[in-house]
Design goal:
The chain is an alpha+beta fold. It has one domain: ph1033 like domains (ph1033 like fold), CATH 3.10.590.10. It has helices spanning 15-20, 34-42, 98-103, 111-114, 125-134, and strands at 3-8, 26-27, 48-53, 59-72, 82-97, 120-123. The chain has a 6-stranded mixed sheet. It is globular. The model has no long low-confidence stretch (mean pLDDT 96). The structure holds a DNA duplex (12 and 12 nucleotides). Residues 2-134 form the EVE domain.
DNA sequence: GCCAACGTTGGC
DNA sequence: GCCAACGTTGGC
């Protein structure tokens, strides 16, 4: 069981928008980066990920679940781009800020810290546990 | 809003 | 296949 992290600008597509889609979820479209796409191809039904607000949020605000595996991105005719569907699972009791993540030595290898530009990224099980604890939320 | 870092494109 | 130019992302 792998864990993931999805980044989005809250002004464009935030947690509230994701929650509003309910259990059907929504495709994570618009990704035009091979690394991010490859990560989505790896995702299996039922795997979980963090939902992170970039730019004007800079914090992890909730947990999402993959509810459809990789399929063509319907927002483009270019067959190279695929995406998964995700649905909101539960919000964090306490959002976990980028500052808090950077301040924790155990999280210094996180992709979020090392490669801030990757919008869909893997999270290790250890990182998953630590961050859920920080957010006072069930993993 | 700025700009560094990174990814992609395209001419050679 | 290299690399300069360009576009985008995202922290600050």
């Amino acid at each position: 069981m792998a864990y993931w992290l999805f980044k989005s600008e809250p002004d464009v597509w935030g947690w509230d928008a994701q929650v509003a889609k309910g259990d059907k979820g929504e495709q994570w479209d618009g990704v035009r980066n091979y690394q991010a796409r490859n990560n989505m191809r790896e995702m299996k039904l039922g795997e979980k990920g963090f939902f992170y607000h970039s730019r004007s949020g800079l914090e992890i605000v909730g947990i999402v679940e993959v509810c459809a595996e990789a399929h063509p991105d319907t927002t483009t005719d270019d067959p190279r781009w695929e995406c998964v569907d995700i649905k909101a699972l539960r919000p964090f009791t306490v959002p976990v800020s980028l500052d808090a993540i950077k301040a924790d030595e155990r999280l210094s290898d996180m992709v979020l810290v090392k490669n801030s530009r990757l919008s869909v990224q893997p999270v290790t099980e250890q990182e998953w546990q630590i961050i859920c604890e920080m957010g006072q939320t069930d993993p």
